[in-house]
Amino acid sequence: MTRNFLMGAAAGLALVMTGCSKPAPLDYLPEAQGYLMLNGKTAKEQAGAARFMKVLEKISPEANTSTDADKVYVAFDAAPGSQPSMYGVLTGKAGMADKVIAEAKKQGAVDATVDGEAAVTMKQGDQTAYLVKVGEDAVVAAGSEADFRKMAATAKRKNPAAVNSALFGKTTGKAGSHVLVATFNTGSLMQQVAPQLGLLAMINPKGAEAAKKVERLTVTADWAEQPQMVVQMGMSETADANDLASLINMGLQQLLSQPNAAQMPDFVKNLKAETDEEGVKLEVIVPKEMGESFLAFVEETAKSMPADPKARESMLMDLLQNMGGEPGAPQSAPDSTTPSDSMPTEPVTPAPPM
């Protein structure tokens, strides 16, 4: 009898401990239509990416919240006609969480409570982002109060979690060797845009039909010696991949037939869609000299950035507009550098909203 009592007590204690165990940071990330992962460790190992991160900190001090993190995970959903939902998890070394919260407060975040948890909130236009410390080495970020409630419910295993998603697995699987990986479930999106492929269907019916069968879109970005980005369109059938590659290459050839094609950089002229084991791949490799010119430009720009967050935001907006080649581009860049010819074509994705 004593033995049975002890065994029962041990079993009960195990159940209690299991039920009270603290969720891991990634347990908060819900299953979603798309994921983005930034690998801070890999970024610091790649020369160009490391240099860009340093200048990013000077231009935008709030970027410290991402550069201090070893890994940044973002999940997002976007239903037609509704505000996109954003969910983020930042992980790093012990002490990182307090540093992230402190930096957010320097940028205007204030103490608040969300779903019964201590948080800080930060206004971005009409939206309010939430940051919640979930450990000494982890912070979760939510695009709204409803988004955080979903994250909290996910951590309690009341919603499907990203860690059990095949799409998230593909994202993390590539992130070990890349600075940035973004993966999107494009199945539903392609069906929505299918009616708009009518013209393409008339020109290239097989290619237009193949475009509807793209299951996912994966983008990887790196910057070791030179900036490079790979766009991968995941498909199940080899024949469909061949048809889609032909359609993309036809579009690229039409682009090169435009009157201003001679002014395009060589790396754009040399773009070509190719098939591989996953589907269709398009690789963009920016020349090292162009990347160096861009870094020189932003480093010079960082020297004149105002300390006030709002003034800095205004200057950044003007800078981005001028980089599009509009009149009145900043003159602070070196003589050999202009915004129009130094900006790499790959997108630089910011850290989750703080």
Using brief descriptors, characterize the structure shown.
single chain, 354 residues, alpha+beta, twelve-stranded antiparallel β-sheet, 12 strands, disordered N terminus, disordered C terminus
Looking at the structure, what is the overall shape?
globular
Give the percentage of residues in beta strands.
15-25%
What is the average of the pLDDT values?
A: 80
- Report the uncertain regions: 1-20, 324-354
Structural class: alpha+beta
Main beta sheet strand tally, sense and closure: 12 strands, antiparallel
SSE order, one letter for each helix or strand: HEHHHEEHEEEEHHEHHHEEHHEEHHH
Calculate Rg over CA atoms: 23 Å
Q: Percent helix among the residues?
A: 40-55%
Largest sheet, order of strands side by side?
4-5-6-7-3-2-1-8-9-10-12-11
Number of helices: 15
Distance between the termini: 58 Å
Overall strand count? 12
Task: Outline the structure in words.
This protein is α+β, with helices and mostly antiparallel strands. The protein is 42% helix and 22% strand. It has helices at 2-20, 40-45, 47-59, 64-67, 96-106, 145-155, 166-175, 187-193, 198-203, 205-211, 238-256, 266-269, 288-302, 309-322, 339-342; strands at residues 34-39, 71-77, 85-91, 110-114, 117-124, 127-135, 138-142, 180-185, 216-223, 227-234, 273-275, 279-285. It has a twelve-stranded antiparallel beta sheet, with helices on both faces. The radius of gyration is 23 Å and the shape is globular. The N and C termini lie far apart (58 Å).
